[in-house]
Amino acid sequence: MNRLEQSFELLNENDGKAFVPYLMAGDGGLECLVDRLLLLEKFGATAIEVGVPFSDPVADGPIIQNAGIRALKSRTTLKGIITELAKARELVTIPIILMTYLNPIYAYGIGAFVQDIQNAGVDGCIIPDLPIEEEDMLVPQLAEAQIELIRLVTPATPLERIKQIAGRGKGFLYMVTVKGITGTRNLFQHDLNQFLRAVKELSPIPVLAGFGISSQEQINELTKYCDGVVVGSRIVELFEKNNLSEMEILMSIFNKNHK
Amino acid sequence: MKTYTLPNEKGHFGMFGGRFVPETLMKAILELEQEYENAKKDFNFHTEKDRLLKEYVGRETPLYLAENLSKYAGGANIYLKREDLNHTGAHKINNAIGQALLAVRMGKRKIVAETGAGQHGVATATVCALLNLDCIIFMGEEDIKRQALNVFRMELLGATVVSVSSGSATLKDAVNEALRYWVANVDDTHYLLGSVMGPHPFPTMVRDFQSVIGKETKEEFILRNGCLPDAIVACIGGGSNAMGIFYPFIKDKSVSLYGVEAAGQGIDTNFHAASLTKGKPGVLHGSLMYLLQNDDGQIQEAHSISAGLDYPGVGPEHSYLKDSSRAKYYAITDDEALESFQLLSRLEGIIPALESAHAIAFAVKLASEMEETQNIVVCLSGRGDKDVDAVKTRMEKGKENESFGTIL
Ligand SMILES: Cc1ncc(COP(=O)(O)O)c(C=O)c1O
Predict the structure, then answer these.
(1) Which fold has domain A3-149+211-258?
(2) Do B297 and A79 touch (CB under 8 A)?
């Protein structure tokens, strides 16, 4: 069993919910990445999603777009990120998931990429522009390295397809809560609960909700129907403002619930 | 090459193409593929499309033997396929009509599109006016400056033009924004993509809608000359006018196919848009294709005097045709295109689009190396009215620099 499966097993035993924060590697300089990962672990993260900056992030809203631009300006590369993650692996015990668009991987070379992230102790990958129709170019190598591909479903995904997608993975299913791009939102579609319930029913693996989640109220509401949340834009924003106390409060949500 | 059946059922042209899009769009592009397959078999769909192409666009377009230009080049005869004479002034409307009719079939009455030069935006806005569809066009801030008149045209036609300031603020960034918009509005909106790029089925569908250029060319040429032309030349932005004129000739091995990219300030500078000449395979905007990118896989900005060629990628089918050597690709600089822009105006009384001027420049070189008994057809993809202002500014600046030089 890999680190991802173990974490969810543990969570399950304690009846807990997952909090997976996202940060943009290289935002604030690549040299602070390890410290930030340690901080997120200390604040109670179940796993961490590490974003790789890309020049053309079509699935992302302005907050993550701008973080990517800052990271690229400070000359962040995928190679540099993997080097830092290898250092982090000595200190960070929770799963690390790399979130990257496909082209940086393709330019790196798929074989070299899988080998290097395996050596760096990366546990999973999320690739927002790699639908199941195209994943054969990467999944066999990832599987051999025991790295999970985390797949996404969205409110635009038909139920039959959700079943098909959920059945392929072992880590968790990433359930996009909106028809849209990343970014903080105040309101979700009124019929979201129904969708969450349906996905949860269809999925043999844990289901985490993500995209647009920024407040404890939203998290409490959503986790009635799923196993946890991914919080991206809000965490990126709080890192940029260096508002760590707010981040700690937001991330303590499940500790409080279960005391 | 006796048979040519690409792409395969997954939309792959060899290693290129595919469907590299966020999951939110998968349902829409699978539906689009299905609907396109149905429409292809529907007699009424073709009848309606062909009626509009004839009565509204003014097809078929002439195949014109440019004798003065041929004489100037001193070699092969140069024919011009006059796509500049289409309604709205370029080939883009062939595709816009096909896709808009498809959108109506799917019950989608909202259209989003990207535009570079503004030609595809104008074509889309025009068809939306005709069919009473809502239209929103994303356009780079930089291109809005370069093509102010086309922005006004789109607005006159009832479209909303949204300025995109992210990245290089040109065509690539307009596509990013249009894709983001589509992700958020996919239920009731069709993305009317303007070239042979993007996820399957777009490269195939746009090629098919543009193939009317090559079909007409072939029929007319054979009718007049009793043989096939020796070479076809077309400029390449995303590659739709080129695919449109190439496609009906792909199986005819005796016909050489030449695509002409923008070399901008030169392919050995950092300021060009020569994706096939200088790029590497990579994934952008839903497709695996040749791409201008750095070693880390970050997409580089393209540069060309012509907004319609200013794109760091190129359609997957051209990527395949390059690797299989069925077509050959060359690059023409800004200066060479400017010269041809003036040359065709003076010699033939035809002011070409700056995009098409790239094809003319290459065709003149090619013709001079061929025999007088041989024939070249150039796809004159658009007219130059939209570029007259920019060329004027550029020529005046050139003169200033010259006189500056003599003073120094
Ligand atoms: C007149 C003209 N020719 C060519 C192009 C390039 O597009 P494509 O390569 O898809 O034909 C454009 C794009 O705007 C155009 O306006």
Answers:
(1) TIM Barrel (3.20.20)
(2) no
